[in-house]
Amino acid sequence: MTIAVVTDSSAYLPTHVAVRGRVFVVPLHVAVDGVSHDEGVDVSASDVAAALREHRPVSTSRPSPGAFLEVYEDLIARGVDQIVSIHLSRQMSATLASAEIAAASCDADVRVIDSESIGMAMGFAVLAAAGAVDDGATVDEVERIARDVAATSHTYFYVDTLEYLRRGGRIGRAPSLVGSALSIKPLLTLTDGYIEPLERVRTTSKALARLKSLARQAAVELDSGDGVDVAVHHLDALERAEQLAEDLAEAVPDARRVLLVELGAAVGAHVGPGTIAVAVAPRCRAPGA
């Protein structure tokens, strides 16, 4: 049987990596000044960062069930029998619900997975699934590998301000951070699909140093002998992200690759300019590796 891997645009897979892995991506929607766009198609992260800095209205919405169904049915028409569809946390978006509705409406065997994550922590699970397909794994094995990588990955991030998360209602189980904490530099993490407070620091330099330390600790925890994968995300903070990626390449000797990936418009709308994030995942063979 032929197996395909589907995800959504919040995985932020570099385009050449998604193409090489034959991963099919369904875009989230981002509205700027009331005009809706498809993430990664006709709106960029820099567009959103500029709009946020100018206090222009920015909002996000999930892909419709019809958008997923169109992708699933197109794959079926190409001869695909089974689909593993991996998406961002249910706690952050209704995207997963759209995929589930579409899956129930099509003829193929579609396995919809809540990654309980976002960004490259989810993206590495997608690549692991695509690699397993290349290796001839069964759909049960592909699903298990994707779930295992997503469940064990770590995400840590720093935001210049919690204001954007507060506005979008994405503060998760961290309401205690709102208020006086808006003036600090918070470090956050993802737990069970929720955004959780991790630590508070007073300066950006201390926050970046702590991200480096946390990534190194996560790499030691996750490495079972095959190494780990690391990604550094940023929104409108390229120089800081480049320096952190360079530092991590030296500080995490077991990192098989350290990717520098810009956060896209949908997540950027909720975390704001200046955000830096690090994802660490157990190494699984990716397509073409």
UniProtKB/TrEMBL annotation:
GO terms for molecular function: lipid binding. PROSITE patterns: DEGV (PS51482). The keyword Heme does not apply. It holds the Pfam family DegV. It comes from the Bacteria. Keywords: Lipid-binding. InterPro entries: DegV, DegV_C, DegV_domain_contain. This is DegV family protein with EDD domain.
